[in-house]
Design a protein that fits this description.
Blueprint (H helix, E strand, L loop, with lengths): L1 E4 L5 H13 L3 E6 L4 E6 L3 H4 L9 E5 L19 E3 L2 E3 L5 E5 L6 H14 L3 E3 L17 H14 L3 E4 L6 H7 L2 E4 L7 H7 L5 E5 L6 H13 L5 E5 L17 H8 L4 E3 L1 H5 L2 H13 L4 E5 L17 H17 L5
Helix pairs in contact: 3-4, 3-11, 6-7, 10-11
Bound molecules: phosphoenolpyruvate and manganese (II) ion.
Amino acid sequence: MIIVLKPDATKKQIDHVLERIKELGLKPMVSKGTERTIIGVIGPEDALRSQPLEVIPGVEKVMPVLKPYRLVSREFKPEATIVDVKGVKVGGKKLVVMAGPCSVEGKDMLMETAKAVKKAGASFLRGGAFKPRSSPYSFQGLKEEGLKYLRDASDAVGLPVVTELLDVRDLKLVEKYSDVLQIGARNMQNFELLKEVGQSPKAILLKRGLSATITEFFLAAEYILAQGNFNVILCERGIRTFEDQTRFTLDLNAIPVIKKLTHLPVIVDPSHGTGSWDYVTPMAKAGIAAGADGLMIEVHPKPEVALSDGPQSLLPKTFVSMMKEVRRVALAVDRTL
Ligand code: PEP
Ligand code: MN
């Protein structure tokens, strides 16, 4: 249920509606827009059905929510959400680019990459210290040592850090060293992890599951918002299809769908979406043309010896040319980079 208040509803009237919802054993979530306030109701709604909420002063209309998600929806919050990470705004006119190696492999390679991506115009440094690998024998990440290198490199160049959190038990540790917590594709439906990061003060980058529908993706984000954390950035990173020329199929349809149905910012990851460095630039451009708010790009100084995802990593010099090409597309769709 979504309760839309009148544009001139007073604070007293709004508080009264919130009280009524709480009395019924439900949880109200408030969205204050520039025009009006909207209240989303969380919990079993049966209690509400017999309540004539429309007659409460200040209430304009009460709308049943037919979709399974609500807080992520445009009905609940018509204005686009801008996630602000240390002054870097995700979801505004200016695009963001999160760039760096798949895995943090060492201090020097990370510092070298951080300097290169910063110089080329990236807005975040990415890198995994906890790696979700298909094989238990593959490199699993440097863990806390890697987090320290990330913090040092990002402080040195002045970029916020985005890094993956795999396990609820590492939440406090990853929060200590990072600015954005990444929930990877394989954990998109780890509901206990989603509930925990929903209580984190950090922004969350939520990647779409390899086989998740767009609705399941929205519901995963809903878990985070329902805990009170509205600083969520979605990431389309490719899904499994029958196609085997590319590692995944980057689902660009998801971009306009996400923009239409939710208020959350969305970025595109053409590195994982294609699995090949030479397809990254064209699909980065396509993602921005489709309306994405930014990109996630893997960059490695020596892709041929990378411990993970070398084939899809750009050399720093290729990243520079990708940025130039993307900038031209950005201007064409009235964005900046
Ligand atoms: C990554 O960003 O390196 C990663 C593991 O991504 P995904 O969860 O999309 O596979
Ligand atoms: Mn990777």
